[in-house]
Amino acid sequence: MYQPNAFHDVSSWTAQHKSNRDAVSRRKIAARILILFALAAASFLCGTLVQVNASEEKAAATAAEPRKIYVEHGDTLWEIAKEIARPGEDIRKVVYDIQKANGLKNAYLREGQELVLPPRP
Question: Distance between CA atoms of 4 and 27, rounded to whole angstroms?
Answer without folding.
Answer: 34
